[in-house]
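Checklist before submission:
- one chain only
- standard amino acids only
- sequence pasted in full

Submission:
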Amino acid sequence: MENNLSVLFYLRKSKAKEKSEAPVYMRITLNGNRVDMATHQFSLAEKWDSKHGYIKGPKEETRIINTALENLRSKVLKIFNQLEAGGKPVSAEIIRNTLTGKSKNRHALVEVFTLFNKQLEAKVGHGYSYGTLEKYQATCQKVEKYIRDQYHRSDLFLDELDFQFITNYELYLKSKLNNKHNTTSKSVSFLKRIIRYSIHNGWLDKDPFMSFRCPYKDPERDFLSQDELETLQGKTLVVNRLAIVRDMYVFSCYTGLPFSDIEKLSPDDITTGIDGEKWIIYNRVKTGNRAPIPLLPVPLSIVAKYKDYPVNVNKGRLLPVYSNQKINGYLKEVAAICCINKNLTFHTARHTFATTVTLTNGVPIETVSKMLGHTSIKTTQIYSKVVDTKISQDMKALKEKLSTVKPVSEGKIVNL
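Returned file contents:
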C-alpha cells in the first residue's frame, strides 16, 4: 500500500489573546490519520494566509518565520523517507515523535520479533530445533501482515499495543487467514512470548495481553493400530523413495524419535546399554532432555538394512532421510498403497510408539515418558491414548484375579 502524506500549517486562533498573535500549528496527515503539533511560531490573524499556510508581508521577521515553517516541512518529509527506506514503522504519530525526540529508545513489535528470531536461529541445534524457528518466523509474517492490513502500517511500537490488538489478531487469524483454533492458539502463544521477551529486556512496562486467553484444545491424534502397523511393515514397496520413507516411519514407530532427531543420528549414537543390548542414548534437539531408548528387533533390522547405504556412508548418518515436507507427502502415497485410511504424517509415528507399541503392551507411562524425552508425564499423556485393546487386557487380568470372589447372593427380593 502506498503511503499518502500531507503537511499543512494553520493558525490556532482559539489560543490567541485579544489583538495578539496566535500560535501556528503543523498538521501531519498520513493515510487519513493525523496529528497536530506546535511550531513555536506566531502570527497575527490578519497576516495569516490560510490557503497557502504562511504569513503574508514583506518584513524580514515574516520571511524568517516562513523559512522556519518550510524547514519543519522538509524535516517531516526527510523523516518519512528515512522510515520508509529503512522498513521501519511509519505513522503520523511516529513522525511527530521522531521530530520532537520522543521516539528515542522505543521499540516496535515486528522489529523485536525479527531480533528474537535471529537470536533463536543461532540457538538451533543447541536446545532448539529448526522446526521451532520456522514456526516463530511464520508467526512473525502473520503479525506483520495483520498490522499492514488492519493498521496500514509496517509496524507498531510496543507501547501502542493494547488488549484490542490481541483480540482482533485472534479474529484476524481465524476469519482472514482461516487458521483453525489450535493453530491460532499457537500463533498467539508465540506472540505472547515476544511480549515477555520485550518486558524482560525493559522495552515494555507491562503485558497488554495479560488477561487474554486462547487455550489450546487437545486434538484427536492419529496413530496406527497393531494391524495397520503390521500391514505397513509387511508391504512390498517397489518405488525406492516410498520404501525408504516407510522404513524411516516404522523406525520412529518403534523408537518414538521425531524427524528432527532421526535426521541427526549417526552410527556413533548407537551404544551398549546397561543391559548389554543396543540402545540409542541422546539429547533431544527440541528440549535437550536425555532420551535413552533400547532398540527393539524391528529398528535394529532397519539400521542393519541401511548400514552400507551410500548416502549414509558419505554423510555419516545412521539412516537416509528426505526433507520433512517430502516425507509427509510420500507418506500419503504409502498410506493409500497400504489401504490405511488415516492422515499419516511423520509425527503420527511418535503417537504410535506411545500408544500402540508401548502403553498398549503394558509399558508404564513413566518409562514411556523417559524414552520420549519429556520433562513431564503430562506431556506424555497428551501424546498417548489408552485404546480399547489395553482396556480389554487390563479388565481380563482383573477378571482372573477376582475369579475366586463369591458372587452376589441369589436370594429373592422381598417387596417392601
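Reviewer check: The domain at 226-398 is CATH 1.10.443.10 (hpI Integrase; Chain A).
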